[in-house]
Amino acid sequence: MRTLSARSDSFPLVAPFRISRGVKTAADVVTVEIAADGHVGRGEGVPYPRYGETIESALAAIETVRAALEAGAGRTEISALMPPSAARNAVDCALWDLEARLAGTSVTALLGRPPIAPTPTALTISLDTPEAMGAAALKLAGVPLIKIKVDRSDPAAQIKAVRAAAPKPRLIVDPNESWTIAEVRELQSLLVDLRVDLLEQPLPAAEDAALEGFRSAVPIAADESAHVAADLDALMQKYQVVNIKLDKTGGLTAALELADAATAKGMGLMTGCMVCSSLAIAPALIVAANAAFADLDGPVWLANDRPGGVRCTDGILSPPSLWGSA
């Protein structure tokens, strides 16, 4: 017989994490544990206010499937009972972890994939003054990939400051839905001149029809506009890359489906995360193995991660031991 437990956990950050929509000082997450036959599978989700989620609503959603889970429901049944959400992500990943532990193997082996390898990740420079962002970039000048959080105040100065301090890394620029289509057009030359590799979700998701037919000089990734595989047909004329986050897809199961569908349609892949612990990053690393861009530095922002978490050295994540293996 199975038993389910679900709780909230909070991880203070080492520094405030600022984006165009606001600032975070802690990673507030939902932790799910499913126990059976002496083994425990764990998963983590990050409820996101942008999608109307809270810790309380996520825990309530998990309670609605308690009876089904404790009676033995699997990932397919749970996907029919819960919408894509952080709550379902935590449950789905806990089920994957439990299955691997019961089988005495790893999740990658269950999937027929090689073990997770060390993975280059973007390290994020949060929104600040151009001077402060340049100072932060100077410390990251030797990493492979930097992600810059910008807004509408002076994105050109913000990006220039980072590139001047860190001339070598690849760059992702993320306005978090704060730009207009006019600003996207106006900044094209700058993005090219500063060798920006990817522009992530510049327009509000509700206004991204303005991107239809627009030929960007820099690939544009759908983040807030992209959740599950069913979204892809509407995205293909607007974006070249899809950012896969397990909290949006509702778990590893749907994330892998989205990755396969996007690849089949010729779209590039990015794997992202919320500000979270390594328990959420471990399954995302499986998706990242086939992605051109990984943005999985959530645990880097924590004052203290979970035991057995990832290690980040010069922008390279070493796989964690806390999830997905026997």
UniProtKB/TrEMBL annotation:
<feature type="binding site">
    <location>
        <position position="223"/>
    </location>
    <ligand>
        <name>Mg(2+)</name>
    </ligand>
</feature>
<keyword id="KW-0460">Magnesium</keyword>
<keyword id="KW-0479">Metal-binding</keyword>
<feature type="binding site">
    <location>
        <position position="174"/>
    </location>
    <ligand>
        <name>Mg(2+)</name>
    </ligand>
</feature>
<feature type="active site" description="Proton acceptor; specific for (R)-substrate epimerization">
    <location>
        <position position="149"/>
    </location>
</feature>
<feature type="active site" description="Proton acceptor; specific for (S)-substrate epimerization">
    <location>
        <position position="245"/>
    </location>
</feature>
<feature type="domain" description="Mandelate racemase/muconate lactonizing enzyme C-terminal">
    <location>
        <begin position="130"/>
        <end position="221"/>
    </location>
</feature>
<protein>
    <recommendedName>
        <fullName>Dipeptide epimerase</fullName>
        <ecNumber>5.1.1.-</ecNumber>
    </recommendedName>
</protein>
<dbReference type="InterPro" id="IPR018110">
    <property type="entry name" value="Mandel_Rmase/mucon_lact_enz_CS"/>
</dbReference>
<dbReference type="InterPro" id="IPR013341">
    <property type="entry name" value="Mandelate_racemase_N_dom"/>
</dbReference>
<dbReference type="Pfam" id="PF02746">
    <property type="entry name" value="MR_MLE_N"/>
</dbReference>
<dbReference type="Pfam" id="PF13378">
    <property type="entry name" value="MR_MLE_C"/>
</dbReference>
<keyword id="KW-0413">Isomerase</keyword>
<dbReference type="GO" id="GO:0009063">
    <property type="term" value="P:amino acid catabolic process"/>
</dbReference>
<feature type="binding site">
    <location>
        <position position="200"/>
    </location>
    <ligand>
        <name>Mg(2+)</name>
    </ligand>
</feature>
<dbReference type="InterPro" id="IPR036849">
    <property type="entry name" value="Enolase-like_C_sf"/>
</dbReference>
<dbReference type="GO" id="GO:0016855">
    <property type="term" value="F:racemase and epimerase activity, acting on amino acids and derivatives"/>
</dbReference>
<dbReference type="InterPro" id="IPR034603">
    <property type="entry name" value="Dipeptide_epimerase"/>
</dbReference>
<dbReference type="InterPro" id="IPR029017">
    <property type="entry name" value="Enolase-like_N"/>
</dbReference>
<dbReference type="GO" id="GO:0000287">
    <property type="term" value="F:magnesium ion binding"/>
</dbReference>
<comment type="similarity">
    <text>Belongs to the mandelate racemase/muconate lactonizing enzyme family.</text>
</comment>
<dbReference type="InterPro" id="IPR034593">
    <property type="entry name" value="DgoD-like"/>
</dbReference>
<dbReference type="InterPro" id="IPR029065">
    <property type="entry name" value="Enolase_C-like"/>
</dbReference>
<dbReference type="InterPro" id="IPR013342">
    <property type="entry name" value="Mandelate_racemase_C"/>
</dbReference>
